[in-house]
Structure formats: structure tokens, C-alpha cells
Amino acid sequence: MIYRLYYWPDLQGRGEFIRLALEYAGARYVDVLRMPGGDFRREANPPPFAPPYLVAGKRVIAQTANILLFLGPRLRLAPRDEAGRLWAHQLQLTVADWLTEVHDTHHPIGSGLYYEDQKPEARRRAADYLAHRLPKFLDYFDGVLGGSGGAFLLGRRLAYPDLSLFQMVTGHRYAFPRAMARIERRYPRVVALHDRVVSDPRLLPYLKSRRRIPFNRQGIFRAYPELDDRRNNPKKT
Amino acid sequence: MIYRLYYWPDLQGRGEFIRLALEYAGARYVDVLRMPGGDFRREANPPPFAPPYLVAGKRVIAQTANILLFLGPRLRLAPRDEAGRLWAHQLQLTVADWLTEVHDTHHPIGSGLYYEDQKPEARRRAADYLAHRLPKFLDYFDGVLGGSGGAFLLGRRLAYPDLSLFQMVTGHRYAFPRAMARIERRYPRVVALHDRVVSDPRLLPYLKSRRRIPFNRQGIFRAYPELDDRRNNPKKT
User: Fold this and answer.
1) Is the pTM of this model over 0.90?
2) Which of A20, A51, A187, B160 is the most buried (most CB within 10 A)?
């Protein structure tokens, strides 16, 4: 099976969570829009609401977490039993909720408006996010790691939500470097998971390759210094 | 199997999507926090990030769409084959994204802040939502209904995403009555689905019962007239 991924070619975005799973598993896939002449399909059945979507044979599957639900067992990145698969998926859905909140730090008013047209609101939302929401998500995943019985979210074997949690950490370090420097030490198991994944020989070649699109200001994680902790005015930890 | 649902007792919220499926199917369940002395579990394994969560025997399942993924085949509210189940789930995840956008019309800055502390931002976000996002979601689901080969999203049999789409329509009519009066006629298949579900004899007793919590200003759908279309100043259709 050669999978075909349809997603924006110039940013990591939601598609990156799929790419990480495909790359880690060594799956054969085409990142369609990054190929010469590649474009979204005019018709896809059943119809996706938005990218990313994956074509696997005659199947068309959309929604990032749904794609990973489909790929997980096929790529050996999820447990085989139903309880394990649903738990992996539940974690992925929590990552999805978290990612939406990250997006809304720079687009709190409308995803169709420019950032420049919602900067005051973005500052308020980002401050609230960094003060309340980011610690809540990090604390949750640190707790899951603490209770899993292994170094990974589901225990002793890496599963696709581990790759997604790695992406969340590296994305936050790019977008909110001061805030992350301030708080990430409070979540040592999350940081250790990041470190384990980033140096995994199954992923390292991809991360060092040109296939890994650099973070930039078209993506979900954006480095706007004015949305990060204020310089020289760190909040008390 | 007697299912145990854990969710806030005084609002519809995300839990309502689970309640609708359980009620439609005539499943045996306890809405735990609505019982005398009922409360959230101190420990749940694996741990949910947030309510709702469902306890089924020894299983604890969280994330609304994940709970419906689990319940769908068991309540005969989803296809049996993998492709059909993933398609139903994909639609549910799109409803989940949509619902988050509805929530953020009144809480664009922070879910932990009062609405009164983010009213100007809420007005901007709600206006953008009604102008751009609501039509996009309604158009999508109308298109899915048009291509399904039946009166329901998946074809000729009602599945759980149909109940969720009904909830979205009735919620919008409560929260944004002027905007809905202006635009819903453009999506006749969505309206027809709503009408079919609301009068379904399998659901009607629940909808008329005291088990159906009325919409209110603690829920996701909130009737703040200042966030709806302006009175006497309807936008051109």
C-alpha cells in the first residue's frame, strides 16, 4: 500500500502529525502537494471538510486523529486490542483540542482574518493560554506518562500519540521559547519523552531531512515574540 | 450493560451528544451526576482530560467523539464495517470542531474567564463566525446529505452523527435565532434532517422529558442577543 497524503505543502500544521507517523514507521507514502503538479482532489468521496486527508486505495479518510486511528494498527503504532486503540485515540483527540487552542492564540477572532487584524485579542488570549491552559495540558500528559508503566504514553512501546506529544513540545519551544524555558522543567516526563523521540534512529533521518518543513509563520506554531512571555519580566514560577 | 455517564448535571454541553445516542437507542444508563450524591470519580483509569467520560464495565472512555465511536456499533447507531465506522467518526469529529467554534463565540479569550470579561472580543468573533464559519459548516453537512443516497448522513439509516447534527441545528436556533432565521433555508437537507430527528418516536419522549436539560447560559449554546445578527439590521442574503 502506498498512502497518499493531501495537505498544504508549505507548513507543518495538522499534516505533520500524519507525516511523523508515516515516517517513523517507514511507510511508503506520497506527500501529494509537495510533488510537481500535485494538488488537492477536485472530488473526494466521502468528502473531507478540510485537509489533511489520506487516500489509501479507494478509501479517503479525513480528520487528523481519524487518519491516525486508521493508520495506527497498520503501521504498528497502536495497540491491537480495542481498549488500547481507543485509549491511544483519546490521547490524540486531547492533542487535537490542545492544538486548536495553540492556533487560536494567534487567531482568536477568526481564522480567515490576518493576524495583524487581531493582535490585541491575540495578546490577551496567548497570555491566558500560557498562564492556564498550557500548564494544564502539560500536567495532564506528564501524569499519563507517570502512570503508564513505561517511558511512553501507553507503556513500554512507542505509539503514535507519543510522536504527537513530541511535536507539541518542539512546536511550543519554537513558538513560546521564553514560556517554555520557564515552565517545562516542571514536566520532566514530557521533556524526557521529547528527548527520546527526537533522537530515535527511526525518526532522526526524517527530522534532519528536507522533508521536514521548518516551522514558519504560516503554520499553527508561530513565533510571534509579542505573544510569548514578556522579556525581562518573567512570571514567578 | 448499564453505562455510566459522567458529565456536568446542569447543562447540555458535550455530554448531550452522548445522551442523545443513549436515549435514541433505548440504552440503560445512569447520568451519574444527576443522581443524588453523584459526583465525578476521584480516580479514573485511564485518566480523562475532562468530562464527559463513560464507564462501561471496567472501561473508562473520554472525549465525546471517542465515546460515540465506542458506542456506535454497540447501540446499532453506526455501520459495522471499518470504512463506515470511520466515516461516521469523521463526521462526528467535524461536529466537534464546529462545536468548539460555537463555544468560542462567547469565550474567544479564555474559557476560564467570565463572558462579561470578553464581550467586545466575543462580538467580533461571533460576527465572523456567523458570516463565514456557520455557513461553511452548514453547507458541508447539506452537501453530505445530498450525496448520501438517503435522508441521513450515512444513507438510509440514522447513525449517531445525525443526532449530533440535529443538536447543532436546535442549538443554533436557540443561540442565534435571527441568524438562523436568515440563513437556514439555504440548507434544506439539514433542516429536513432536523425535522425528521426531532419528531422521531424513538427520541421524542426524551426531548419532552425532564431528562432533557433546557438550553441555558451555562452551556455551549448561549442566547446572548448581542452576539446574534443585529435586530432590524439583517444582512443581505
Assistant:
1) yes
2) B160
